[in-house]
Automatic annotation (TrEMBL):
Recorded GO CC terms: ribosome
Pfam short name (any one): Ribosomal_60s
Alphabetical list of InterPro entries matching this protein: RPP3
Species of provenance: Musa balbisiana
Feature: compositional bias, Gly residues: 80-96
GO MF annotations, alphabetized: structural constituent of ribosome
Region feature (Disordered): 80-125
Protein name: 60S acidic ribosomal protein P3
Length: 125
C-alpha cells in the first residue's frame, strides 16, 4: 500500500505540488488537472491496487492532496487538514470483519419527547 502526500501551492495562476517526503512533483493550470497528474505520478511508482484520493484546501492559495494506492476496501479518509501543528493522518481502510465474528447487537433506546413543561418555561408564554 502506498500513501503519497503532496503540498500544493498556487502562484501566478499556476498550481504546483511537491511530495511531502519524496521526489514527486507536478504543476498544472487548475487543481483538477494537478490532481490528475499527481495520481498518474503516484501510479507510476506504485500500482498495486485501487486508488483513493483526497484534496483539502488550506487557504485560497494552498492545499494538501493525498493519494492512497491499495490498502483493501473503502474507508479512506484524510483527517486534520489545517489542524494545529499541521498534523495529517490517512486511513487506508480496514477491510471487512472476520467471517466467524458474530454481528454486534443493535441497541434501541426509546427517547422521551421533551416538552416545554420539562424545561420549566414555555416558549409561548
Amino acid at each position: 500500500m502506498g500513501v503519497f502526500t503532496f503540498v500544493c501551492r498556487s502562484s501566478g495562476g499556476e498550481w504546483s505540488a511537491k511530495q511531502l517526503s519524496g521526489d514527486l512533483e507536478a504543476s498544472a493550470a487548475s487543481t483538477f488537472d494537478l490532481q490528475r497528474l499527481l495520481v498518474q505520478e503516484a501510479l507510476a511508482v506504485d500500482s498495486t491496487g485501487g486508488v483513493q484520493s483526497s484534496f483539502s484546501m488550506v487557504s485560497p492559495s494552498s492545499a494538501v492532496f493525498q493519494v492512497i494506492i491499495g490498502g483493501g476496501g473503502g474507508g479512506g479518509a484524510f483527517i486534520g487538514a489545517g489542524a494545529p501543528g499541521g498534523t495529517a493522518a490517512g486511513s487506508g481502510g480496514g477491510g471487512a470483519a472476520a467471517p466467524d465474528a458474530p454481528p454486534a447487537p443493535e441497541e434501541k433506546k426509546e427517547e422521551k419527547e421533551e416538552s416545554d413543561d420539562d424545561m420549566g418555561f414555555s416558549l409561548f408564554d
